[in-house]
Backbone:
């Protein structure tokens, strides 16, 4: 039994010594028992966290041997195929790490794989947070910090893989410089200041190095710390389940459960990266050769997280303006600014837009099931499609080669899909969400199909349905549709125009609200009102939740003005 | 050991939790051991008895007993693999491709097994040996109470008054004035990061009479030596064959055509000629190799269609008509290098490019 456990003298002595100085027992007691909800999707952010820890560890190892210098040397090292070739010290030291430092190649490959995993985990973690609405009040700031982390991660990765000064990364830097030059007014200066003169120069590698090993990781570390402290302070969200409410958090205590699971997760991630580093070779810079601006290899692709920028550059037609003696190169500016601009700005503003459109000012600690927020889910999928099309276009030459269709056809398909795809994605996702809601409503009303067929005395065959269990019911009933605002320009019972939906902005808000409030009526406890029996679009209604919505909104609407919601 | 290491760390997130003024968290202390060490600060008296206890033993002891063996086995495996890593580090040489790959395989595999063994053991431990426990914790309102907010506002205005910041505008304004130049220093101090661009993007190292050297061999070339129609080679300027800064702008491709295939129309930009047959020699034409999109080398040449393709973003140029753009994001044709032959018959530049090479920039015009 735990109370009979003798605390070893060494432990209790040290603990007392520390507590005399820090008053830690009370706070640590609370922290040890801190509850962490359990759901597989809560582990995604942790992948990014542990990848970052590994990046720091392996990066420190690499920095012990890497020489961040463009100084020219003639190679006479272990990799004999490059014997006698002129190269930078950066490239030479990367070769030495790979071929002359024991475990150096392993560390390089873990570092590179960990960077890719870091960005992939961030992406998927952000998608999880978005699709479950975990960014809602009170967690908007942590959502913004996440967007900041993603942006910094992009830069950190770009600068990092540029350091070895190999042919592939040099081409990436050249593109970076070309894009920089394209910025109106200041572009040429920015490029000359960053590169200390014309490309490539001798300064870019040491400059990228200090940004890559000090400034950006420092910022990332600070933001991760803030992210975690805020998460601990505000407590984690939880999935809808029996016993979970907005005002509690159900799960397992940090010590010993979450600590053991978190530790295991670290070892699994580290182990998986070590496996990848062993069996899936990444960035074999010795095959690329040292950078020379005269050369290029075909099928040059950046790391996956830069793929959307690469694809945007490829999909863009040649648009350029010359006016008053100045050049504005839209074929560079639009790809560089628009895709990430749309995604990051949109993601950053979304929580506030949603709050404005729904009028919902309450806190949310229970996550939404994506189907229960069709507009949000559909918008998210539209963004994913937009991203995905540009990302795939970043490998249009590889795709064209793989499926044997002309390269230009691939680009033209992408040019169309980048606009049409998100629209289709939005529409289809919204329909799927509403369909799944209808299925939920049906399950609540009729129970689950058991697959057992029974013949009735009159010869009729029926399938036995079993009622949903308590646990299932808690999940099915977790839908909290937005409260409905009055229709645009409408008046209340006294003939006074509703202030929140008057004016242009108010009308926009009323329309947005209608979208967010769209839902399929879920009948609770079987006492239905004739709606939502789930047999087709005709039964869909915008409905006001019985009591789940926030109370601040006056009016709230009724069944009649709900009919306009489905179009 | 881990709970000792965390003594100072978690204070941060937990302490402000109370300071902000949420209802004081129930100070709960499990068991007697920790409470007794509390140094007499008095918190030990606030133990709330209502808190649910964690179960002490797993639900299925036999199952846990078996799981214990699995955990111990995977920890032993991790230990052995960890030793294997050290052995491989000491025992395996590097310094050649094959040796490095052998070493990488041994090190990576042993490290993976050691880590996955630890992870696997820990997961089995927590899932099958630790008794299953679910704990409910109440969330406390994040918003401070009205009284707390009022107290905050009260002290804030009190303290602001005491600081005299509002009452003495001369201090306030001179303080702001004093910070202005300091705020500008980080920008100003970066001025020496690089030289001003000037006109350097408009020029390359090509000059009248400078020989075209074949990239790789660094030998000059005569039209007769480059006589196979359909071929393309990369050219670097004599004297700058190893200067990467110069090559980043001055790299050139020359392409040989059959008679009649090449037809560069005379094009001008204002009064400046930027493309003409007069700059070709014996159906050989020279174009900048630096793509006008973002500066990648436009290095791929398709003989049958005479298309020059930049592999980075697939800008495609028609070599027969002055490298005009036929697809992709490049906004301009590849600039043509005026070319002639010198007294010894070698290909030389007639002049520098007559327009800036490479990507667009604001001042290009």
Residues:
């Amino acid at each position: 039994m735990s109370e009979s456990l003798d605390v070893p003298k060494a432990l209790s002595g040290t603990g007392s010594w520390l507590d005399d100085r820090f008053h830690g027992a009370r706070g640590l007691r609370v922290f040890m028992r801190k509850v962490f909800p359990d759901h597989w999707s809560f582990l995604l952010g942790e992948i990014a966290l542990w990848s970052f820890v590994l990046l720091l560890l392996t990066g420190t190892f690499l920095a012990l041997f890497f020489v961040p210098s463009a100084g020219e040397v003639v190679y006479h090292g272990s990799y004999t195929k490059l014997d006698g070739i002129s190269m930078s010290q950066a490239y030479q030291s990367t070769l030495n790490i790979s071929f002359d430092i024991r475990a150096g190649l392993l560390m390089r490959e873990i570092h590179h794989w960990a960077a890719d995993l870091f960005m992939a985990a961030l992406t998927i973690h952000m998608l999880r947070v978005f699709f479950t609405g975990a960014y809602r009040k009170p967690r908007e700031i942590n959502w913004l910090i996440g967007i900041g982390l993603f942006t910094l991660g992009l830069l950190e990765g770009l600068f990092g893989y540029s350091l070895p000064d190999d042919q592939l990364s040099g081409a990436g830097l050249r593109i970076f410089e070309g894009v920089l030059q394209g910025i109106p007014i200041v572009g040429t200066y920015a490029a000359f200041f960053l590169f200390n003169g014309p490309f490539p120069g001798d300064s870019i590698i040491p400059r990228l190095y200090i940004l890559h090993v000090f400034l950006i990781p420092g910022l990332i570390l600070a933001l991760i710390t803030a992210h975690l402290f805020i998460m601990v302070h505000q407590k984690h969200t939880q999935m809808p389940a029996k016993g979970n409410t907005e005002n509690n958090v159900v799960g397992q205590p940090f010590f010993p459960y979450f600590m053991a699971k978190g530790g295991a997760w670290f070892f699994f991630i580290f182990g998986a990266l070590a496996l990848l580093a062993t069996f899936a070779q990444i960035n074999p810079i010795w095959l690329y050769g040292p950078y020379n601006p005269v050369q290029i290899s075909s099928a040059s692709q950046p790391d996956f997280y830069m793929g959307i920028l690469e694809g945007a550059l490829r999909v863009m037609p040649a648009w350029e303006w010359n006016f008053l003696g100045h050049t504005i190169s839209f074929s560079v500016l639009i790809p560089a600014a628009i895709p990430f601009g749309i995604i990051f700005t949109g993601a950053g503003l979304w929580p506030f837009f949603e709050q404005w459109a729904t009028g919902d000012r309450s806190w949310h600690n229970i996550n939404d099931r994506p189907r229960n927020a069709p507009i949000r889910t559909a918008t998210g999928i539209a963004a994913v499609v937009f991203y995905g099309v540009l990302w795939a276009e970043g490998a249009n030459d590889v795709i064209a080669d793989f499926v044997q269709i002309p390269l230009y056809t691939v680009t033209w398909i992408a040019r169309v899909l980048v606009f049409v795809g998100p629209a289709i994605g939005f529409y289809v996702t919204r329909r799927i969400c509403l369909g799944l809601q209808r299925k939920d409503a049906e399950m609540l009303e009729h129970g689950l199909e058991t697959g057992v067929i029974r013949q009735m005395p009159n010869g009729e065959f029926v399938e036995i349905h079993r009622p949903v269990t308590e646990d299932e019911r808690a999940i099915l009933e977790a839908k909290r549709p937005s409260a409905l605002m009055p229709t645009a320009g409408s008046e209340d019972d006294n003939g006074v125009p509703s202030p929140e939906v008057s004016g242009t902005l108010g009308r926009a808000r009323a329309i947005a609200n209608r979208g967010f409030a769209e839902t399929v009526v879920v009948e609770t406890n079987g006492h239905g009102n004739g709606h939502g029996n789930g047999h087709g679009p005709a039964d869909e209604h915008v409905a006001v939740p019985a009591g789940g919505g926030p109370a601040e909104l006056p009016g709230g609407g009724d069944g009649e003005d709900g009919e306009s919601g489905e179009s | 050991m881990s709970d000792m290491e965390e003594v100072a760390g978690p204070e941060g997130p937990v302490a402000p939790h109370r300071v902000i003024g949420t209802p004081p968290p129930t100070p709960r202390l499990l068991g007697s051991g920790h409470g007794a060490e509390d140094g007499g600060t008095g918190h030990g008296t606030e133990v709330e008895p209502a808190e649910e206890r964690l179960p002490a033993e797993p639900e299925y002891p036999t199952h846990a007993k078996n799981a214990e063996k699995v955990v111990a086995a995977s920890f032993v495996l991790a230990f052995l693999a960890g030793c294997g890593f050290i052995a491989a580090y000491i025992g395996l040489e590097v310094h050649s491709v094959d040796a490095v790959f052998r070493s990488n395989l041994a090190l990576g595999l042993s490290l993976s097994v050691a880590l996955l063994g630890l992870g696997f053991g820990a997961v089995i431990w927590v899932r099958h040996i630790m008794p299953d426990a679910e704990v409910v914790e109440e969330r406390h309102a994040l918003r401070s109470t009205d009284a707390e907010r009022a107290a905050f506002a009260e002290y804030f205005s009190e303290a602001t008054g005491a600081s005299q910041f509002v009452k003495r505008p001369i201090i306030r304004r001179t303080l702001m004035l004093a910070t202005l130049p300091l705020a500008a220093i980080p920008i100003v101090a970066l001025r020496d990061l690089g030289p001003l661009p000037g006109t350097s993007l408009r020029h390359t190292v090509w000059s009248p009479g400078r020989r075209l050297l074949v990239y790789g061999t660094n030998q000059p070339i005569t039209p007769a030596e480059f006589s196979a129609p359909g071929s393309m080679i990369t050219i670097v300027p004599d004297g700058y064959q190893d200067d990467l800064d110069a090559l980043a702008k001055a790299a050139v491709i020359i392409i040989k055509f059959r008679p009649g295939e090449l037809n560069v129309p005379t094009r001008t930009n204002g009064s400046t000629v930027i493309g003409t047959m007069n700059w070709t020699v014996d159906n050989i034409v020279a174009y900048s190799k630096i793509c006008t999109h973002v500066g990648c080398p436009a290095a791929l040449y398709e003989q049958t269609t005479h298309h020059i393709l930049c592999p980075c973003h697939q800008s495609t140029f028609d070599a027969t008509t002055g490298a005009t753009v036929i697809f992709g994001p490049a906004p301009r044709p590849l600039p043509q290098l005026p070319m002639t032959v010198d007294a010894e018959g070698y290909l030389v530049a007639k002049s520098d490019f007559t327009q800036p090479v490479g990507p667009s920039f604001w001042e290009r015009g």
